[in-house]
Amino acid sequence: MGVLGIVRHLDSIIGPGVMLLFPLYASMRAIESPSTLDDQQWLTYWVLYSFITLFELSFWKILVWIPIWPYLKLVFCMWLKKVLQMMSLDARKSVEQYIHRYGPDAFDRVIKAAEKEARKR
Predict the structure, then answer these.
(1) Mean pLDDT score of the chain, rounded to an integer?
(2) N-to-C CA span, the chain
(3) According to the UniProt entry, where is the signal peptide (predicted)?
C-alpha cells in the first residue's frame, strides 16, 4: 500500500474521526455542561454538516467526477469546527470585557434594547 496508498485514502482514514467521532464526543460533553453556548456551537455544526451531506447525496453523480471532493469536504468540516470555536470564544470574551469595563447594568441595558429592537421586527 505504501505512502501513496495512505495519502490516496486519507479522507477515508481521517474523515470519520474528524467529521463524526470528535464532534459526537464534543456534543455529548456540551450537553452535559451547564453552559448553553457550547450546545449552540455543536448544534450549528450538526445542522451545517447535515446540509453538506444532503448536498452530497443530491449531487453525487456530479461529485463522483470531482476527485478532490472528499478532501474538500474534510477540509471544510475542519475549518467549520475551528470557526465555530473561535466565534463562541470571541463572543464570550467581548461580553466579559464589556461587563468589566461598563458594569453589569450597562450590559442589561444593551440586552433590553436588543430585545426591544427584535420585537419591532
Answers:
(1) 80
(2) 60
(3) none
